[in-house]
Design a protein that fits this description.
The structure holds two protein chains of two kinds. By secondary structure, chain A is α+β, with helices and mostly antiparallel strands. Chain A is 39% helix and 13% strand. Chain A folds into two domains: 2-109, Ubiquitin-like (UB roll) (Roll), CATH 3.10.20.30; 127-144 and 151-266, Orthogonal Bundle (Fumarate Reductase Iron-sulfur Protein, Chain B, domain 2), CATH 1.10.1060.10. Chain A contains eleven helices and seven strands. Chain B has one domain (2-78, 109-249): 3 helical TM bundles of succinate and fumarate reductases, CATH 1.20.1300. In chain B, helix 2 crosses helix 9 (164-191) and helix 6 (109-129) crosses helix 9 (164-191). Chain B is elongated and about 60 Å long. Chain B starts with a helix and ends in a 5-residue tail after the last helix. The mean pLDDT of chain B is 87. Classes of the chains: A alpha+beta, B mainly alpha. At the A-B interface, helix 8, helix 9 and helix 10 of A face helix 1, helix 2, helix 4 and helix 9 of B.
Chain lengths: 267, 250
């Protein structure tokens, strides 16, 4: 654990921007004597304290649980969403990881995508994700209070796969990493975990259509199968889910009865 | 009609159309190569093969129409997705960007595609339309004593492939084809939702294997032509290959 003690000096190039309407720019900060044991966000806290003391505007960044599970944090660190450590959110990245690689200059950028307008500096508005989920990422029946365990038998391998997709914390690193700013991995994960379980299976067809159509409406790009999202994902959600979403979408196109029923209702 | 319209109006639907039209092209290039390798069986065999294809106008024109349709779909969807993705990444260029998984072929699809488009135009002028639309083409490229003859495709090919002004665009086109196919074949599986742990690990192997076979096969023709054209002695060649490249000696 010797590498975890001591301090390090850094040069930060932080993206500063006052909302999506104004142009942003990089501002250089010297971060001196940062403890290697600090997390990346704690490092920013230290820098911000100095900025506040000096009467400057602190750097705005998103965070909440700081335990790697809430999905709030997210900074593109030297060109990689959530930084260089695989399967790790920004808040769970520690400075010794960067010290280990000899990093002393860091570029901090927000998630860059048309679907994620910048709120301030490193904070982006991810309401588009909420709208994708609101479009159909739920089960419409009232499920009541928690049912008895094992009331609906689900084979363990199926439950495990659903859990893999449900691990998505909606941080948006997939969009940030995608060369097309596509939200395919997020949407596919949200569709996938519901599609596999009996409660969610009934509405699988409509849900796929609705969520995909919302995903497009939010102005995200298309998937070109680079695989960057899977690598950037702190929960390593697999792009196999995107293939399943594509398959489900084509199936929905062929089998959906919605158009027919709407026509019948109208006549 | 409603369903087809919806398919075309979504990004996933567009990718499905890209995959399907791309698969049509893949089928074509596989057939195209297997036919062209007949060149190694000699001038007669090659010209007979060509005449056989032309003896079935329905098949010939059916294939051409399907290919033209696939091109229209592939090109228009590619353009639409490109402009959409450009818009989706507005202000989305990172000062520092480190790719972790994406490969060269995937990142250059919008280069290899247009290169292929221009190569196909060149290729058609060289071997299909020839003198009909560009009679002075050969002379302009510095190829003397040659006139396009649609009944002697073997001669058209060998004459072209012995000259760098024809070989260089051909090689660039075929290499672009290889890169485009490598990402395209793998991408086709994902876009059509063909994903299963049983075969997922082989999808990229298949893509690279097919691409290498096709590139090597297509390049073998001009390489052989150049090798023999630059060599004083052809005795080391198989008799059938000698006949192919030096029909005047037989």
């Amino acid at each position: 654990m010797a590498g975890h003690t001591g301090t390090m000096n850094l040069t930060l190039h932080v993206w500063r921007q006052n909302g999506s309407k104004t142009a942003g720019r990089f501002v250089k900060y010297d971060a001196k004597d940062i403890p290697k044991a600090a997390s990346f966000l704690e490092m920013l806290d230290i820098v911000n304290e100095e900025l506040i003391e000096a009467g400057d505007d602190p750097i705005a960044f998103d965070h909440d649980c700081r335990e790697g599970i809430c999905g709030m944090c997210g900074i593109v660190i030297n060109g990689v969403p959530h930084g260089p450590r695989p399967k790790t959110t920004t808040c769970q990245l520690h400075m010794f990881e960067l010290a280990k690689d000899g990093v002393d200059e860091i570029y901090l950028e927000p998630w860059r995508a048309q679907g994620f307008p910048v709120l301030k500096d490193l904070m982006v508005d991810r309401s588009s994700f909420d709208r994708i989920v609101a479009a159909g990422g739920y089960i419409t029946i009232r499920t009541g209070s928690a049912p008895d365990g094992n009331e609906i038998p689900i084979p363990k391998p199926v439950a495990d796969r659903a859990m893999n997709a449900a691990e998505c914390i909606g941080c948006g690193a997939c969009v940030a990493a995608c060369p097309n700013a596509s939200a395919s991995l997020f949407t596919a994960a949200k569709l996938g975990h519901l599609a596999l379980l009996p409660q969610g299976h009934a509405e699988r067809t409509q849900r796929t259509q609705k969520m995909v159509s919302q995903m497009d409406a939010e102005g995200f790009g298309s998937c070109t199968n680079h695989g960057e999202c899977e690598k950037a994902c702190p929960k390593s959600i697999s792009i196999d889910w995107i293939a399943q979403m594509n398959r489900d979408f084509v199936t929905a196109m062929v089998t959906s009865r919605q158009k027919v029923s709407e026509r019948q209702k109208g006549s | 009609m409603q369903r087809a319209l919806t398919l075309y109006n979504t990004t996933i639907g567009k990718k499905v159309l890209m995959a399907v039209s791309g698969t049509v092209f893949l089928g074509f290039v596989v057939g195209h190569l297997s036919g062209n390798l007949k060149a190694f069986a000699g001038a007669q065999a090659f010209n007979e093969y060509s005449a056989w294809l032309h003896s079935m106008p329905a098949v010939l024109w059916g294939t051409r129409i399907v290919l033209a349709g696939a091109l229209a779909v592939h090109f228009s969807t590619a353009y639409q997705l490109w402009s959409r993705n450009k818009k989706a990444t507005t202000g989305g260029r990172y000062h520092v960007k480190k790719f972790q998984e994406s490969d060269y072929a995937a990142r250059t699809m919008y280069w290899s595609g247009p290169i292929l488009f221009f190569f196909i135009a060149f290729h058609l002028i060289h071997l299909t339309l020839g003198g009909a639309i560009w009679p002075e083409g050969a002379a302009l490229l510095g190829i003397e004593g040659y006139a396009f003859d649609k009944h002697n495709p073997y001669n058209n090919m060998v004459n072209g492939f012995r000259h760098w002004p024809v070989v260089v665009p051909y090689v660039i086109g075929v290499v672009a084809l290889g890169f485009h196919l490598f990402h395209g074949i793998y991408s086709m599986f994902q876009s059509l939702g063909l994903s299963h742990p049983k075969y997922n690990e082989y999808r990229k192997d298949l893509a690279i294997g097919l691409s290498i076979i096709l590139v090597a096969g297509f390049l073998s023709l001009p390489m052989a032509a150049l090798a023999t054209a630059m060599s004083d002695s052809i005795s080391w060649l198989e008799p059938s290959t000698q006949r192919f490249f030096f029909p005047e000696l037989n």
